[in-house]
Design brief:
The chain has helices at 33-61, 68-76, 78-94, 96-109, 113-145, 152-169, 173-194, 200-213, 219-245, 251-263, 265-270, 280-292, 294-297, 300-321, and strands at residues 3-4, 14-15. By secondary structure, the chain is an all-alpha fold. Among the domains are: 33-95 and 206-245, no CATH class; 110-197, no CATH class. The protein has a two-stranded antiparallel ribbon. α1 packs antiparallel against α2. It starts with a strand and ends with a helix. The relative contact order is 0.12. The chain crosses the membrane at residues 36-58, 219-244.
């Protein structure tokens, strides 16, 4: 480089000195196994924590909790909650053929809602009349049991009234036939349902939990719990990436910075305050390389400008001293 040396003249000359700088280009990554391992761990770590955030949001959406605290707990305890929901989904898949068969049977054989309501009302009236007749017959039997030689003529009208009321309340033949027909129609439905070995509450609970979580009274708590765990996963991913890359930007951001510097170098030269900031380590290294060997560290025009600066500075110092 050009360095000042003491001479007898007023204009010191510059002589070449040996450079002590190392090569500025780093070694390939595969030749630095520790750095490669660090980056691999960083990539895996970022993927894991962000996947945890997404899984936590899904866990909160499928939670069966009623309060925000319960939903947040299910969002954080991702594995046990999602394992339970997976078991429910697997159970539904395993029994989908039986469920579909039952649904098809009901669709093809079930009466309309009006028919069901009419049959239920008629059956209820028939059963009520049968119960009334049974009560009247029971009371008549009790009266006959209490009848003796002394009160026979007094209890006979009472027994007659009970028998008459039982006969009046007794349903007609058409009502009994309708009741028999309803029972005959119900038996196949019961057989179809009883033939299925399905835990319906287990299936309903999963579906109702999702519908309940997004109902008007719980949707805010559900969305807040989902957003909380997503934010946690994102921040944790940033922390892992920061450690793995030692604070450097990612590959895409680095390439965009380099492309922007080459494309808009004149603008950045005129507006250096908008240029990407330089780390303290590279800044110190650049300063050391300039001091050690400016001809190697700087371009030719910059070396000439630096030499003119020192020449002007010496002239000013010489003028002041004289």
């Amino acid at each position: 480089m050009l360095g000042p040396t003491s001479t007898s003249t007023n204009q010191p000359k510059y002589t070449r000195v040996s450079s002590v700088t190392a090569e500025s280009r780093p070694r390939p990554l595969w030749l630095r196994p520790r750095e490669l391992l660090r980056l691999i761990l960083g990539v895996v770590g970022v993927f894991v924590v962000r996947a945890y955030g997404v899984a936590g949001a899904l866990s909160a959406a499928l939670s069966d909790g009623e309060t925000f605290a319960q939903k947040a707990k299910d969002a954080l305890l991702v594995i046990p909650n999602l394992a339970e929901r997976y078991d429910q989904a697997d159970y539904l898949i395993e029994h989908r053929a039986q469920i579909q068969s039952a649904v098809d049977y009901l669709h093809n054989h079930a009466p309309s809602s009006d028919q069901l309501a009419s049959a239920a009302q008629q059956s209820a009236r028939t059963l009520e009349r049968l119960a009334t007749s049974y009560d009247e017959v029971t009371q008549a039997q009790e009266s006959l049991t209490a009848t003796g030689p002394t009160n026979f003529w007094q209890t006979l009208p009472e027994v007659k009234d009970h028998i008459s009321a039982a006969w009046t309340a007794w349903p007609d033949l058409d009502s009994i036939e309708r009741l028999r027909k309803v029972s005959d129609d119900v038996v196949p439905f019961l057989d179809q349902v009883n033939a299925m070995d399905i835990d319906f509450p287990r299936i309903y609970s999963a579906v109702l939990s999702v519908a309940d979580n997004f109902a008007s009274d719980e949707i805010v708590a559900t969305l807040v719990a989902m957003g909380m765990v997503l934010l946690l996963g994102y921040v944790a991913g940033l922390a892992v990436a920061f450690w793995a890359r030692r604070g450097r930007p990612g590959l895409l951001a680095t390439r965009l910075h380099e492309l922007g510097g080459r494309t808009f170098h004149r603008w950045y030269a005129a507006n250096p305050e908008f240029a990407p900031s330089l780390h303290a380590g590279p800044r110190a290294r650049i300063a050391r390389e300039i001091v050690t060997d400016p001809e190697k560290a700087l371009a030719g025009d910059d070396v000439d400008a630096l030499q003119r600066y020192f020449d002007d500075r010496r002239e000013r110092l010489a003028g002041n001293s004289s």
